[in-house]
Amino acid sequence: MRSLLCAAGAAGVLLFAAAGPVVADDGPDTDGFTIGDARITESSGLAASRAHPGVYWTHNDSDDGPYVYAVDGRTGRTVATVTLRGIGDPRDVEAVSVGPDGNVYVGDIGDNYGGSWKNVWIYRFPEPRRLRDQTVTATQFTVTYDEGPRDAEALMVHPKTGRVYIASKKKSGGAALYEGPERLAARGPNVFRRVAAIDQWVTDGAFSPDGTRLVLRGYFGAQMYRWESGRPKAAGSVGVPFQMQGESVSFTPDGRTLLFGSEGKGSQVQPVGLSGDQLPESAAEGADGKGGGEGKGDGAGASEDGQAGGDGKNRNVLLAAATFGAATVLVLLLRRVFRRR
């Protein structure tokens, strides 16, 4: 059985490789980069620095300790390692985001036991003015959900309001977007409340720099949403490059490109250019930059659980479906061969 799985896995990789990279019609604004730090073997979150253009914050998954890494987006070299003090022992760190308040937010929000932990945590620290190895004091926030424990890997801070959002992971378990309180409190639990259903297996997410778009990614796909009245409205699927374990996503500072990251030593961060309705308002051609999505009130409006709009769809969805179908047929054929032996 192990050899069958290996053969099937190799076949799937070959099929995806033959399909080629999945990109939007417009070319990306960056070539991406490869993370060169041998310590970063499970890059699970990605966020563009506000204070240092061209630098991206990332971190390992569980069992690494209270460390966050600043990576140069041109060279892939780590330019600073930040050690967090004043917090407990990180358990399952899954996400990172930079807020408009100049702070970096780290989401210790994963739950490998399917949502059995009563609470999870967010760590917040000021984005350093100088990029060098240093230890900083972080604030720890306790997080609970109004629907009970959840496994989550996506944490996003809105770039205008500073409000924190978390997307739970499992599609089969009813994934959803949860909204934190207007201001996080260091004392007592911060209850995150469900604001919209998400029909996706979510491993990370990010707001556009102007706050008008929200992207949520999974292992093999991503969905774009318009952010209207504090709620997501579907704007179509986004092609995602094939990665062995797709984990992270971030907008570039200009909002025109998405960067998709993966776990693994020497993992690549790959770009996908955006176009049409999926472009943030400030990046769209002819936009005056005044759109903000949040101008209608952060908490008002009904949630939008509709399917992806036609403008955002592209042929990459069909390509992915055809590839999956071919891989399935190949697995069935291999199974028949192994049964005869």
How would you describe what is shown here?
- This protein is mostly beta strands and 341 residues long.
- Helix content is 13%, strand content 35%.
- It has 2 helices and 21 strands.
- Strands 6-7-8-10-14-13-12-11 form an 8-stranded mixed sheet, with no helix packed on it. A 5-stranded mixed sheet has the order 2-3-4-5-9, with no helix packed on it.
- A hairpin with a 5-residue loop joins strand 4 and strand 5.
- The longest helix has 26 residues, at 315-340.
- The relative contact order is 0.16.
- Mean pLDDT is 80; it is low at 1-27 and 286-341.
Summary, kept brief:
This protein has 341 residues and is mainly β. It has helices at 2-19, 315-340; strands spanning 33-34, 45-48, 55-59, 67-72, 78-85, 95-98, 103-108, 120-126, 134-137, 139-145, 152-157, 164-168, 176-179, 189-197, 204-207, 213-217, 222-228, 231-238, 246-251, 257-262, 268-273.
Secondary structure: elements and pairs:
Blueprint: H1 2-19, E1 33-34, E2 45-48, E3 55-59, E4 67-72, E5 78-85, E6 95-98, E7 103-108, E8 120-126, E9 134-137, E10 139-145, E11 152-157, E12 164-168, E13 176-179, E14 189-197, E15 204-207, E16 213-217, E17 222-228, E18 231-238, E19 246-251, E20 257-262, E21 268-273, H2 315-340
Parallel strand pairs: 5-9, 10-14
Antiparallel strand pairs: 1-21, 2-3, 3-4, 4-5, 6-7, 7-8, 8-10, 11-12, 12-13, 13-14, 15-16, 16-17, 17-18, 19-20, 20-21
